[in-house]
Every structure is written in structure tokens, then in C-alpha cells.
Task: inverse folding
């Protein structure tokens, strides 16, 4: 199964790339979870929070082409249910459009009956990313800062 | 028209909401598949899909000779965060205040 999420954000491709790959910035809109990696092709990444105890997710950076394209495998680790789903693939694509960017997140290699928890968080994450980049404010919707 | 206007306008039609529900149930459908679920001409369904696409609620991908339609729920989330959460938050706050007041009573 394949899921596609698209959003327009008034920012530059470079600022958008930084917001996706900088751990501290990521925590501001990704349910409070940090993402750490050295962002070289073939490197791994970890998603977690010092206070969450165990990792929330991990994966490999398959393709890295800043500030345009990032392809990652993603293994969700936040519950026994999602762990059973195994690795899926997340592709981030940034395309400048006028004074904005179109960000497309394609989440595929999902099982046909994949647990909706794997992909259900994307709208809230992308809404928080847009809010952060355009206003410098945090999204405070219930649940959006779950791990802070 | 602003982005929000396009989303509200797209949602203000039962056929378009039905199309979104179909894609929610199963993503990546062709026009022919979607059309078979509706008592409407192919042209009519295309028109609705175009409005949904313009509002960003549907995105399409080519797969060989076929065009596949996917639900993009992000604009609904943006409308929620901008318009709905703002109002429901107060109700939640009022209930929390009430709880505190009742619990603080001697």
C-alpha cells in the first residue's frame, strides 16, 4: 500500500531540508521525537526521546540529495503492534513553487492491511512543520507534542 | 480564493465527500473504479475529482497508462488546526476549570 501526503510551505528548500534533518527542530513538530543521523548515504537514523526510554523508530537513509530528496526505510518501534509491521519506505521530495515549496511525503512498501498508526501521524507532523516554518510557533493540538 | 476556501468549497458537496470516503477506504484508484461506485457520468466524476485536486485533497500519480487517485488528508488537518481546534480547545479548558473548581471545594 502507498500513502501520499502533500503540503505547500512558504519557505526555502534549504530551510525545509534543515527542518527535516535537524534533530532539535524535528522534535518541535514530530510529536516531540528527535531524529538523529549523520545524513550520509547508507547511514542509519534513530528516532527517539531521552525520556521515552526505548527508541520510537529507526531506519536507513537510502538516498540523500539535499535540499531535494531523501529516501529512508522506517521501522516503527513505539509498540509491539507496530514492530510486527517491519520496514516500510518514506520518500521526502521538496520542489520550489514560487516563493514556497511543495513537500511530498510518500509512505510506501506498507502492507495492504498496515496498522494506520504507521502513517496516520503524517498530517499532524506536516501541519506542525508548516506552522513552525511559517510562524516560528509550535502546534499545540492535543497529541502533537506527545513525547515532549 | 484562499487555500482554506478551496478546501471548504470542495468539502461542501456530498459526491465529493463520498469520493474522499472511497479513497479513504482504499487509496490509489483509477477514474474507472471510482466512476463504478457512482450514478454519474464519467465527465461528472472527472469534474468533482478536478475540484478535489485543486483543493489539494486528492493527488494523482501515473502508473503506466493509468492515473491513480490518492487521498491527501493534510489540508483537512490544516483546517482542523486553524479553525476547529481553536474553538474546541475552549470547551476543553472550560471543563478542566470546572473540574478544578469542583475538586477544590472544601
Result:
Amino acid at each position: 500500500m502507498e500513502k501520499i501526503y502533500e503540503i505547500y510551505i512558504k519557505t526555502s528548500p534549504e530551510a525545509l531540508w534543515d527542518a527535516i534533518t535537524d534533530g532539535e527542530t524535528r522534535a518541535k513538530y514530530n510529536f516531540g521525537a528527535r531524529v538523529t543521523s549523520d545524513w550520509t548515504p547508507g547511514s542509519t537514523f534513530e528516532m527517539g526521546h531521552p525520556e521515552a526510554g526505548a527508541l520510537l523508530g529507526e531506519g536507513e537513509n537510502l538516498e540523500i540529495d539535499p535540499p531535494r530528496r531523501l529516501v529512508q526505510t522506517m521501522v516503527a518501534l513505539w509498540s509491539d503492534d507496530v514492530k510486527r509491521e517491519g520496514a516500510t519506505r518514506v520518500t521526502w521530495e521538496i520542489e520550489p513553487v514560487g516563493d514556497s515549496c511543495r513537500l511530498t511525503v510518500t509512505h510506501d512498501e506498507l502492507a495492504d492491511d498496515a496498522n494506520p498508526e504507521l502513517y496516520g501521524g503524517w498530517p499532524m507532523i506536516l501541519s506542525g512543520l508548516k506552522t513552525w516554518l511559517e510562524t516560528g510557533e509550535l502546534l499545540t493540538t492535543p497529541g502533537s507534542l506527545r513525547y515532549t | 480564493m484562499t487555500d482554506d476556501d478551496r478546501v471548504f468549497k470542495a468539502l461542501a458537496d456530498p459526491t465529493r465527500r463520498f469520493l474522499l470516503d472511497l479513497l479513504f477506504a482504499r487509496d490509489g484508484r483509477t477514474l474507472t473504479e471510482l466512476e463504478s461506485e457512482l450514478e454519474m457520468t464519467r465527465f461528472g466524476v472527472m469534474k468533482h475529482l478536478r475540484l478535489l485536486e485543486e483543493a489539494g485533497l486528492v493527488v494523482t500519480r501515473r502508473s503506466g497508462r493509468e492515473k491513480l487517485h490518492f487521498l491527501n488528508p493534510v489540508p483537512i488537518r490544516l483546517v482542523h488546526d486553524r479553525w476547529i481546534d481553536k474553538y474546541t480547545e475552549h470547551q476543553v479548558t472550560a471543563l478542566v476549570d470546572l473540574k478544578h473548581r469542583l475538586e477544590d471545594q472544601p
